[in-house]
Amino acid sequence: MSLVNTLSGFAAATVLMLVAGAAQAATVLITGSNQGVGLALAKGYAAKGWTVIATHRRDTTPDTLAQLQKQYPGKVRPEKMDVTDDAQIKALAAKMKGEPIDVLLHNAALIRMAPLNDPKGNAGQYFGTLDYELLDDFVHTNVAGPLKITEAFIENVRASRQKKIIAISSAAGSLTVRPLGADHYWYYITKAAENQAMHMLTIQFEKEPITVAMFHPGGVQVESFGDLKLPGFVAPEVAAGKLITTIDGLTRKDSGRFMESDGRDRPW
């Protein structure tokens, strides 16, 4: 074999390796990614070499995402998209037209309107003082948001290799498990509705190779807890690590499941 042929063969092999590497590159879009579990998921996927579309609703790029983008240039792309804003959803969908999204990850959610250590911060979710206008905010964020975003980006999911739609739900969405207390009416109600919305998507795409799944991430020590430490709660990075590993392993047969972060079934 001549030197020219050897070099040609080497070049061809190199091209094939590059093409294969490009084919294996994956993209995740994460809503509510500037803090808590969402930020930890963005960090985890970026560390794996994925392209991370990290969405937020702030007027300017949050410092957390700006720092992550600096750490992973060309991989982390902060984008403004309030999950309740139709115009922002449509604008980002238009911007990303034709770009595959392997994992569409619905993480943005309303839980309460003030930090956990604020005794008056949850008044609108207690019986007797229920704020029905506040319920609208919860519905638009926790239920309508994931559905609108799925409708807007479904062609991106269809164009990808993994084709996964994931919702970070909550044990609060379970109908077969007794609530811990009657203090988060709107959160419990809308998380149950979100799970049903995801079940509807499971039926919607049952004839397509699209996997839809819901997760209870477990007790996570997020920023809104402040200095309050709850027993058994883990750092966001720990929860995100388990979630990413489990999501990676999902197949079409898992569609419709409600799971713990480690893949065990969660009652619903």
Structure write-up:
This protein is of the alpha/beta class. It has one domain: Rossmann fold (3-Layer(aba) Sandwich), CATH 3.40.50. It has a seven-stranded parallel sheet with strand order 3-2-1-4-5-6-7, sandwiched between helices. Helix 2 links the parallel strand 1 and strand 2. Helix 5 runs parallel beside helix 6. The protein is globular, with a radius of gyration of 20 Å. The N terminus is likely disordered.
Topology:
Blueprint (H helix, E strand, L loop, with lengths): L2 H22 L2 E4 L5 H12 L3 E6 L6 H9 L4 E5 L5 H10 L7 E4 L25 H27 L5 E5 L16 H20 L6 E6 L19 H14 L8 E3 L8
Parallel strand pairs: 1-2, 1-4, 2-3, 4-5, 5-6, 6-7
Helix pairs in contact: 2-7, 4-5, 5-6
Properties at a glance:
268 residues; alpha/beta; Rossmann fold; seven-stranded parallel beta sheet; 7 strands; 12% strand; globular; disordered N terminus
